[in-house]
Task: structure prediction
Amino acid sequence: MVRAAGLLFAALFASAFARAAAFELSPIVIQLEPRGPGAARNFVVNNTQSDPIALLIEVYARSASDHGEEIRTPDYDSFVITPPQLVVEPSTSQAIRVQWIGPPDIERELAFRVIVRQLPIRFLSENQGSEFQADVAVAYRYEAAVYVAPPKSKPSAELVSSEPAIDETGRPVLRLTIASKGSMRAILDQPRLQITSASGASVELTGERVDTLQMKNILSGTQAVIDVPWPEEVEFGPVGVTLNTRYFVG
Result:
């Protein structure tokens, strides 16, 4: 299976809420099949603190704009989340089951974000009574990735266009548009760029010179726009570019 690394990863946000409880979520990436036993898996929430925490689970479908920015759309129909809300007692763990109930026959991988959000509730201790009170802000949240892929899905990336550009800092860059043409996400691994100028000067960029491409996750059916520092070996201007890459598989 292809795992989303680097980009495909949980984000943990702390608020200014001083007595906020914390929790852990694992795994942060789940791969599902569109039918059969592989259509369901569990996340596990671990409450690491001494207070109960209330959590809400939300699902968003993921796509991308023509410029590669992620687009999220609330999704209420593709999964059964059990439970959709929960209270986790101190120093305990609880499973959250994610089951795909969308179309059993899909042509390419579909991508989703599952957000586990701590609700702004502070539980009072027994000697304070049985009521609870709400605080101002959500304390923590995790973002996990869920992918639903048809059998034998494969990644494939294609260089759509390349052009000289100036980035927001004023530096010359090579601006690449790369499309994910395969039936599952393409995570670029060990990419190489062969660049040839109009005058015939040529250079191959690898390693640190293409860091912005390494482990770039491009969802199936979308494209990304990525800047690479302009190579000093060729003059700034129109160039021919060839992309060769492996894909992160694990």
